[in-house]
Amino acid sequence: MLSQYVEERYAADLLATNTSGVGYLLKQRVADVEEFIEALRRVAAGGTALDPQVVAQLLVRRASDPLERLTARERDVLALMAEGRSNAGIAAQLVVSESAVAKHINNILAKLDLPKADADHRRVLAVLHFLGVGG
Predict the structure, then answer these.
(1) HTH luxR-type domain: from which residue to which, for each copy (predicted)?
(2) Per-residue pLDDT tens for 38-87?
(3) How far is the C-alpha of 54 from the C-alpha of 30, rounded, in Å?
(4) Domain span at residue 77?
């Protein structure tokens, strides 16, 4: 991918869906023809070529957003939680066991830094975070 700007979502999706032959460079890198050709060769050979600015943006975003810590499956579970699904409903939708769903939910709560507390309902807090409500 050659882009004028760093588009974090595109970069994250590109890296998540491709395991080889991946490149994301900013157009300003084309000015250095030798560097650009080397990057093209690396990608053509199945390697990776990432612009340093892209890497920096992804690292900053990952560090600042706890949702980025979640695996794709954990995000699926959290999205279904946001739809109001029970563990049984989530398990049926994802074709997994209820114990697998419970494990995913525990991982989600830990990754979102939601410790056990009598005054809080962690599942609701996780969904609110997912929806971007309440900080």
Answers:
(1) 63-134
(2) 989 999 999 888 888 888 877 766 556 788 889 999 999 999 999 999 99
(3) 15
(4) 66-131
In this structure, the answer to whether residues 122 and 82 fall within a common structural domain is: yes
Tokens, residue 130 = 């997912």
Angstrom distance (rounded) from CA 44 to CA 81: 41
* Last residue in a domain, options 64, 96, 113: 64
Q: How many domains does the chain have?
A: 2
Reading the block at residue 88, the tokens are: 């049984």
48-50 and 22-26 strand pairing? parallel
Same-domain check for residues 99 and 111: yes
Tokens coding 96? 């997994």
Whether 85 and 125 share a structural domain: yes
Contact 81, 127 (CB under 8 A): yes
